[in-house]
Write a structure and sequence with these properties.
Blueprint: H1 7-18, H2 21-32, E1 37-38, H3 39-46, H4 50-62, E2 66-71, E3 74-79, H5 82-97
Antiparallel strand pairs: 1-3, 2-3
Length: about 100
């Protein structure tokens, strides 16, 4: 499978977004929950500042990994494809275990 010239920057954007430990943790958290999570809840779980988490979330949104919904005055996160994200994380775990 060869990437097209159009796909290369898009795939690179996704991999770059997931290359940051905080963003990877955010995607993993959101993908593991049955219900959408408020950004504030994610910030509390990660023990990070809301604004910092929000900046990470915007990167994930631009790479099409997360969707942000406005619910009243809150912002709620939902994975674009939670099952695919779980599979990617499992693939990465298997890759680091292979010698």
């Amino acid at each position: 499978m060869v990437l097209t010239e159009e796909e290369i920057p898009q795939v690179s954007s996704v991999l770059s977004a997931l290359g940051n430990p905080t963003r990877l943790r955010i995607v993993e958290l959101v993908s593991e929950t049955k219900r959408p999570l408020h950004i504030k809840a994610v910030a509390e779980i990660l023990k990070k500042d809301y604004a910092a988490v929000y900046r990470h979330v915007k990167v994930l949104q631009r790479s099409r990994l997360l969707v942000i919904y406005d619910v009243g005055r809150s912002r709620v996160l939902h994975p674009k494809n939670g099952e695919l994200i779980k599979q990617f994380v499992q693939f990465a775990k298997k890759t680091i275990r292979t010698k």
